[in-house]
């Protein structure tokens, strides 16, 4: 485990290092003996830049790669255009927030001394600074991993100005403004600086009055329109789909039922109530068969652990359901000697039978089955709502990331990944809520995980939304719309007419077990002394055993002859139900357990590097 953890950390560290810009790379194979920067700034805050770089190579190289940030210092996107390198081959590409200009010929090495003249436009436009305008520009950036000598600069602004420019130099964050010689002549600033060491910058900061750049086009924030549009489209389409295909059409009538309607088994009753068959529903069949005289359950011990012996007392009747016969005879024929079976033999094996039984019950009651209870279109509606909810989340994340200055492709990719993460957590959360309360087994600790993930994602991105100043009302509405669609996606349970009828009857039966009167219980027990035990598996499936057993308090009850506890003693119905409920959960875990798989990968054929991907780099 420790070895895998260290390997994962090493891979993560390597991935992070690959994303770090070139300033952390080794000393470059050249020095710069002269660097002249000529900048002409227009009234639209577009900088026309001409850089003359004298490069002295110390090793054979084809050329240099010029990195130009494609965002301002406060994260606004910049349009870089009209790129040219006089007399040299070059190619450009965007990578990790930079425009890369690769200069040189791959078929030949550069001369020992080369002079590169690079021209480009750097369109900042509206800087979104409400207190004024400014020229805050790195004449020499801090990502040159070489020394730079004899730096000269010439800057021309569109209009006269009265403020004094401030030149700082050194490592990032340095405020040292000594040693820079410059002069101001009307709209022109020119000067020089003798030397910069590796990864040191030279920066000009000039504060100008608001409106100085009077031809700037105001940046239009499209995020509110995108978010409102995504909210409206996804929410309207999703809710419309749910109303048309997912919402219940027939109102179930909850009739009073003293017995399971239509002879339903507890596993079927559990599916009809909530539309899902879990392992505990399947395990309830053991009590169902035992209470009817078809088998006996005895507790046993093996290595200080409780196990169970199942003994067949009679064959199932001919009219029993197909899924009952599959499970019943699999227990005794596949994992026993035909008449008895030990639960130890079923560990990590019987789950296949459990899955088959689940699929058979679902198939029997699906649309087109012998008793279809759910309408066509539920699955399609659920999938579409998930997709629309994910798109709503993606609009939120993508808009926020794009508004922070990232490029469209990066924003689309990161927004999509965050949307998938958020959607998975959201879907898992609403699924657990829908399936754990009020009729299903509580999993409170498990619920905390996705809820914590959701809460963290919403809070963190809300803080992020505030920091980048995206449209907050639209943000929260779009987020709420996505959450609503995911809630609706697990409530696409439109029932057929028969489905609504049988659902109402099963709910009525459950209500009777939960709130029945003792007088009625006495009459039913007089009619059938085994009524308590025969109905017990239904109470277990409905998760109301505590309320069910309370209705039998004060009634004289004999212990069941089909269950043999390991430690026999004074019989009490309440204690018996509590113990058997706990034991059935234990059996459920045993019967549904599956062998764990090792996700280490290539355990027999692995080699250096650990597989999947790799990276590195060198000078051009």
Outline the secondary-structure elements.
Blueprint: H1 2-19, E1 30-41, E2 46-57, E3 63-69, E4 79-85, E5 90-95, E6 98-104, E7 113-123, E8 133-140, E9 148-156, E10 166-170, E11 181-185, E12 188-196, E13 201-208, H2 223-246, H3 266-274, H4 279-290, E14 295-302, E15 305-312, H5 322-334, E16 340-342, H6 351-364, H7 378-403, H8 408-436, H9 444-468, H10 472-489, H11 497-515, H12 518-527, H13 531-542, H14 545-550, E17 563-564, H15 573-592
Helix pairs in contact: 2-7, 2-10, 3-4, 3-13, 4-13, 4-15, 5-6, 7-8, 7-10, 8-9, 8-10
Specify the oligomeric state: single chain
Q: Output the number of helix runs.
A: 15
Structural class of the secondary structure composition?
alpha+beta
Supply Rg.
Answer: 37 Å
Count of DSSP E strands?
A: 17
Show unreliable segments: 1-26, 437-446, 597-620
Give the averaged pLDDT, no decimals: 75
How are the strands of the biggest sheet laid out side by side? 4-7-2-1-9-12-11
Q: Percent range for helical residues?
A: 40-55%
Q: How far is the N terminus from the C terminus? A: 40 Å
Q: Any idea what the shape is?
A: elongated
Strand content is 15-25%
The major beta sheet can be summarized as: 7 strands, mixed
What does this structure look like?
The structure is a single chain. The protein has 620 residues and is of the alpha+beta class. Helix content is 41%, strand content 20%. It contains 15 helices and 17 strands. The model is unreliable at 1-26, 437-446 and 597-620 (pLDDT under 50).
């Amino acid at each position: 485990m420790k070895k895998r953890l260290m390997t994962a950390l090493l891979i993560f560290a390597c991935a992070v290092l690959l994303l770090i810009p070139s300033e952390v790379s080794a000393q470059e194979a050249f020095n710069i003996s002269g660097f002249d920067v000529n900048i002409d700034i227009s009234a639209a805050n577009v900088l026309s830049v001409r850089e003359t770089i004298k490069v002295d190579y110390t090793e054979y190289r084809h050329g240099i790669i010029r990195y130009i940030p494609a965002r301002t210092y406060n994260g606004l996107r910049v349009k870089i255009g009209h790129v040219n390198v006089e007399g040299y081959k070059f190619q450009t590409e965007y990578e990790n927030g930079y425009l890369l200009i690769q200069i040189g010929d791959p078929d030949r090495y550069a001369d020992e001394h080369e002079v590169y003249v690079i021209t480009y436009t750097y369109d900042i436009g509206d800087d979104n600074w409400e207190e004024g305008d400014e020229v805050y520009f790195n004449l020499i950036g801090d990502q040159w991993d070489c020394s730079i000598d004899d730096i000269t600069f010439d800057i021309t602004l569109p209009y006269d100005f009265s403020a004094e420019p401030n030149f700082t130099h050194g490592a990032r964050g340095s405020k040292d403004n000594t040693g820079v010689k410059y002069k101001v002549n009307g709209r022109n600033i020119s000067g020089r600086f003798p030397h910069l060491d590796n990864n040191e910058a030279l920066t000009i900061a000039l504060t100008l009055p608001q409106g100085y750049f009077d031809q700037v086009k105001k940046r239009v924030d499209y995020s509110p329109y995108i978010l409102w549009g995504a909210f409206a489209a996804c929410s309207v389409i999703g809710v419309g789909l749910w109303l048309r295909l997912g919402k219940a059409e027939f109102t179930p009538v909850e009739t009073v039922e003293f017995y399971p309607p239509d002879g339903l088994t507890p596993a079927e009753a559990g599916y009809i109530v909530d539309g899902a068959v879990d392992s505990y529903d399947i395990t309830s069949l053991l009590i169902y068969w035992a209470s009817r005289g078809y088998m006996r359950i005895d507790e046993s011990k093996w290595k200080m652990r409780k196990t169970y012996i199942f003994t067949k007392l009679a064959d199932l009747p001919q009219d029993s359901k197909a899924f009952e016969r599959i499970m019943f005879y699999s227990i005794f024929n596949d994992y026993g000697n035909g008449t008895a079976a030990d639960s130890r033999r079923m560990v990590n094996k019987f789950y296949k039978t459990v899955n088959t039984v689940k699929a058979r019950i679902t198939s029997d009651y699906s649309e087109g089955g012998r008793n279809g209870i759910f309408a066509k279109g539920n699955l399609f509606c659920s999938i579409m709502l998930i997709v629309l909810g994910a798109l709503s989340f993606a609009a939120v994340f993508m808009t926020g990331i794009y508004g922070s200055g990232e490029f469209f492709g990066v924003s689309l990719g990161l927004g999509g990944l965050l949307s998938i993460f958020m959607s998975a957590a959201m879907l898992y959360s609403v699924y657990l809520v829908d399936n754990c309360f009020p009729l299903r087994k509580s999993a409170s600790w498990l619920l905390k995980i996705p809820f914590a993930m959701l809460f963290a994602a919403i809070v963190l991105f809300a803080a992020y939304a505030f920091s980048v100043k995206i449209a907050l009302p639209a943000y929260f509405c779009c987020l709420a719309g996505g959450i609503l669609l995911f809630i609706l996606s697990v409530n696409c349970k439109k029932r057929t007419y028969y489905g609504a009828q049988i659902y109402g009857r099963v709910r009525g039966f459950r209500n009777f077990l939960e709130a029945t009167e003792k007088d009625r219980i006495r009459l039913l027990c007089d009619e059938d002394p085994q009524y308590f035990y025969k109905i017990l598996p239904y109470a277990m499936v409905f998760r109301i055993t505590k309320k069910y057993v309370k209705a039998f308090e004060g009634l004289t009850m004999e212990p069941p002859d089909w269950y043999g506890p390991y430690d026999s003693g004074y019989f009490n119905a309440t204690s018996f139900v509590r113990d058997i409920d706990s034991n059935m959960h234990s059996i459920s875990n045993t019967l549904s357990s599956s062998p764990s798989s090792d996700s280490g990968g290539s355990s027999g054929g692995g080699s250096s590097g650990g597989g999947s991907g790799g990276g590195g780099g060198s000078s051009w």
